[in-house]
Amino acid sequence: MASRDAHLARIDGGSFDVLIVGGGINGAVSAASLAGRGASVALIDRGDFGAFTSQESSNLVWGGFKYLENYEFPLVFKLCRSRNRLMKAYPDNIKEISFLASLDQTSPYAPWFAGLGAFGYWAIGQFGTRPPRILRKETIERDEPAINTDSVRGGIEYRDAYLIDNDSRFVFSFVRSALEAGASAANYVELVSATREGDRWRAELRDTDTGATYTTMARVIINAAGPFVDQLNQSWGSSTDHKIVYSKGIHLVVPRLTTSQHQRVLAFFDDTQRLFYVIPMGRRSVIGTTDTRVDEPFTEVTDEDREFLLGQINARLDLLRPLTTADIIAERCGVRPLVVKTTAGNTDAVEWTSLSRKHAIESDRKRRVVTIFGGKLTDCLNVGEEVADAVEELGVPLEKDLHNWYGEPAKATRDEFYRQARLMKLDALRTKPDTERLTDRLWRRYGRRAFEMLEAIRDDPRMGEDIMESADYLRVELHFGANTEMITKLDDFMRRRSKIDLVVPKDDIVGSAGLKEVAEILFGDDADRRLQEYLATR
């Protein structure tokens, strides 16, 4: 994979079929879909790929069980079908997981009625998961002793899926797919202005890291700016039938709360009768999310947010001691960009709590702009395909979709990697307790590139050593990340290519003897500056 500088050189002065503005899930999947079908693509983001909204998700791949409340059956069917496709295409990265919902005296639904919904959800999802169950109080006590069942009437268990690694890494997998298909991409590049010249756009760009400026041309622009799509459209005078409103959601990462050996999501209705969850993240648990209407895309976790979530979970779990703010390892906070019709009049009056995470795609045929409104990780393949259709309708010819722009390598390739890993006794290198097998982890994260990692470890056993005391990352992963994952700042690696910042306490990170070596491997002579830049934000 070419370096970021090489991609910037290709973008500067280049002419492309499509310029994609925004490197979150919508922009990344659009780049993969279009490049995979033969279009020349440039992808930029003013921050890192998979940052902002796309790094604050629940890490869940789900069909939207709660959308049944508003009878959005077509949307649920579409999302479940996309979930099923993703589970099939990414069997090592996206796994089926149980959702255990406890229903107490104040819950809006009785267990039998929620059970009907669960079976309906299973059917709408084309039976793509194991079947649901209606649970008695005694069953909940046995299956998940961490739940306080004093006021529980019963519950249900249904199934969806989750990302084993973090959301941003999944987003970057589409960026990598686009790059492998010939696209050009660069993070930390913002669109300064775009003007229509004849049959093309002329875009002025700026490197937000160095201040350098560039110019590029494109036949079509895709506005994949997530929460900022409206502002971007306004900048070039494009009017649309849809707009975005914002709902803030937060998650708190704490030490693992569940006592069961099984990985499952716990679901509860909070005191306002909205669902919130306890989601597994390895040796951690993620509590969330809230649902608060906000007027701006920039948000932060407040003391009120923390107190609310901690109070809700302390009341519903039987913990040895109540959780406090001292137990919070990391926080996630972002906005959901929710789609509303501009023709609906006063969008401030919209009942936003009932809005779903659907997406809408609009084309401005005169200006040759495609805008992606809303969406979520689960719906990404649909977005990629629909954007390709829209671009083709605007006059950019595409090759037949062979569906080779997403998914993991073939099973035979996986089997060969596992065979080689067994021969070299890769898993014997790991001595930390309660950690994932190296074979599983390297294959899931790197696919075909993991073969090169085996070779590097054979040549130099130090490459198979953990580089930070509290994080599960090998030295070889850092070297490969430096060369293939367009890591521009240390935060790109710590927060997005990995989830170290999410699962390791800040003091452990800052005090790690390996942190300096991480920076040296990733940035060479620029390591000290990047390290200090990172530490200043901790």
Low-confidence stretches: none
- Name the beta content range: 15-25%
- Our measurement of the CA-to-CA distance between the termini, rounded to an integer number of angstroms, reads 31 Å
| Quantity of strands, as a count | 18
What is the CATH class of the largest domain? Alpha Beta
CATH topology of the largest domain: D-Amino Acid Oxidase, Chain A, domain 2
Largest sheet, if any? 10 strands, mixed
Helix-and-strand structural type: alpha+beta
Count of the domains = 3
What's the rounded overall pLDDT mean?
93
Helix run count: 18
The helicity comes to: 25-40%
Tell me, briefly, the overall form.
globular
The Cα radius of gyration reads: 23 Å
- Reported CATH architecture of the largest domain: 2-Layer Sandwich
CATH superfamily of the largest domain: D-Amino Acid Oxidase, subunit A, domain 2
Structure explained in plain terms:
This protein is α+β, with helices and mostly antiparallel strands. It has 3 domains: 150 residues, FAD/NAD(P)-binding domain, CATH 3.50.50.60; 163 residues, D-Amino Acid Oxidase, subunit A, domain 2 (D-Amino Acid Oxidase, Chain A, domain 2), CATH 3.30.9.10; 125 residues. Helix content is 34%, strand content 25%. The protein has 18 helices and 18 strands. The strands form 2 sheets. Strands 3, 4, 5, 6, 11, 12, 13, 14, 15 and 16 form a 10-stranded mixed sheet that branches. Strands 1, 2, 7, 8, 9, 10, 17 and 18 form an 8-stranded mixed sheet that branches. Helix 13 packs parallel to helix 17. It starts with a helix and ends with a helix. The model has no long low-confidence stretch (mean pLDDT 93).
